[in-house]
Amino acid sequence: MFPPKSLKILLLARSSLCSTIRRRAHSHQINPAIHLSDQVRDASTRGQPIVALESTIISHGMPYPTNLEVALSLENIVRQGGCTPATMAIINGQVKAGLLPLELELLADPKTSVVKTSTRDLAHAVAGKRHGATTVASSMWIASQIGAKVFVTGGIGGVHRGVSDTMDVSNDLTELSRIKSVAVVCSGVKSILDIPKTLEHLETLGVPVATIKSKQFPAFYTRDSGIPSPLTLENELEAAKLIKANMDLRLPTGLVLAVPIPAEYAPDADHLQRIIDEAVQTAVALGISGRAVTPFILNRVAERSGGLSLKANVALVEQNARVGTRIARHLMELCTPSTYTTSITRPASPPRAASPIMIIGGTALDVTGRIDKASPFSPAMHTSNPGTATYTLGGVARNMAEACARCGSNPVLVSAVGADIFGTYCLDAIKALGMDTSHIIITSERPTAVYNAILDSKGDLLTAVADMRINELLDSFDILKVLADVQPSILAFDGNLAASAMERVLTAFSQYKTSNEKAALCFDPTSNEKGRRLLQAMKAAGHCHIDVLAPNLFELKAMWEEAIRLNLIDSSRTLNSANSLSEADLWGEDVEMLQILQLVEHLVVKNGPRGVRYFRQDGKGHVSSHRFEAQAEHDVVSTTGAGDTMLGVMLHALTVTEMDFCRSIRAGMKAASLSVASKKAVSPRIDRAYIQPFIKQKLETVP
């Protein structure tokens, strides 16, 4: 017999050992042969849900450019749902989880030689340094190697028709029977296959099959295959509970979670079935077999259906991505960190701190041409001018976010870039600053924004062309959800948004403010016309208050005139200034423009080398004003980005260091003077150490 003390120690040791075994049963050591993207690696280290996506649908499932558009759309759906997408593929012999936009383009390009790669083909693709598109089977395997629990696809493979002659059974079914706890969210079995035999085979293999929100098992293009579903789940939460139970029991299989195609996109079932039957017969007659069968039949069906099958395919896979993302989020909530997260073979990066700053708006590539000082004409119009051309990162919102990040903030940037070389350049540079890119949309619908500026020999702006069409896509972003997730103390946005997107920002912020009373809203107009756009959005949204407005003098005038036109302000009201109105000057301009303070609490007016004016109204009609002269100038290289730098540093100073407004403006102006002397929109000389003197100094009386 054990003495009481020894028995207690033994029981404690046993309890600890059991706890360790339980943790190890659910944690996963990431396979070092899998190359993770930065976003996937970051999500993995933080224990955030990852949704795996296949790539055969890109290379073999759809025509170009629909395939690229759908690939980007699926990733955006997953991101907007609060998860991290991990598209699987083999690029130059590297097995990758998470692809760059250029890699998605590579797979989508019909000129690229891409091999359809199941699990049996992985080693061959790696050894031969080939490009490979992953099937359901190989995608499941890669997902299991990085700890992803949810995998989204269109439809799974299965038992082919005429199996008694061909013995053609998809490897998808084999992998489902031996890859543990990876749930495949799909629209059932591809309708070109023998669905009853496929379900029978899955039952034999012990693979759970369930349909979400339907008692009938779907058949890819159609909502009802005519076969009852083995299991029915009422919603995504029940699906997540099923996955977790599978994990807890350590069952040796994956799961099939079927989602019927949205009813409005389901083609006529009988008509489509006749087309499929004919395509199958044609494939047999032509002797097409093996991995070539499915692409041939799908292409044939797309042609014969007049494109209806392609539209249905897009709709169902996007629906599956939404459902799969919700399942992944529920699963994360059900699981404790020890049962869901993965561990990486090298030290994990620390979790990101919560961000007090959220910024919505433009990311752009700035292409700047500056006319030479030696040019006899400054400038010569209707002809070329000798000078220099440079390109740097730009975009008002992105510049503000970089300025915040360089000071030590962790701003959340909500923006959009194109699936092109400029977009890749922008994303890589943003990541290099340590900024979170999970809320940046990547799309092939629009090119990355480009701002093409022409400067005179002094570095001042002469004219510019701005292609900012991509920012129209931010209208679809779920702003309220991101606000709820990020919980910022200040939300800033720029004028590059469409009027409808501005209206949605104002509406979402109003709802957010009901439970976050101290949260503030900041706006940078960007241009005269875009400043007017905000007033139009304010009227449409019924939201007539901005906490911080930071226009230049010309933008202020345009906004004041628009506010009067829209009857948003009372132009007959006079100002009661704490200082004399002569002190509340606007460089000799009409001080009646300060009537905009009926809509604004803090007004920061920028006027380049002539400095800044700051006005504040207390809600009772009393206005205080402060002058800030421009900082001692360095040699001017470019004024582009100076105002954005100033506002970004101000946001950091106000929120992170809790400076008062006057010191925040001083810090921002000093930073702007550094950016004026830099070729980059935001000077690299701005860093954490830069902001410290402003934190320590006492507020001086402003004359």
Automatic annotation (TrEMBL):
Question: What cellular component terms from Gene Ontology apply here?
Answer: cytoplasm
Q: Where is the Carbohydrate kinase PfkB domain?
A: 360-684
Asked whether the keyword Transferase is assigned, the reply is yes
Pfam families per UniProt: Indigoidine_A, PfkB
A Gene Ontology molecular function term for this protein is: metal ion binding
Which UniProt keywords are listed?
Glycosidase, Hydrolase, Kinase, Lyase, Manganese, Metal-binding, Transferase
Q: Which InterPro entries match?
A: Carboh/pur_kinase_PfkB_CS, Indigdn_synthA-like, PfkB_dom, PsuG, Ribokinase-like
The name this protein carries in UniProt is: Pseudouridylate synthase
Q: Which PANTHER family match?
A: CARBOHYDRATE KINASE PFKB DOMAIN-CONTAINING PROTEIN, ZGC:136858
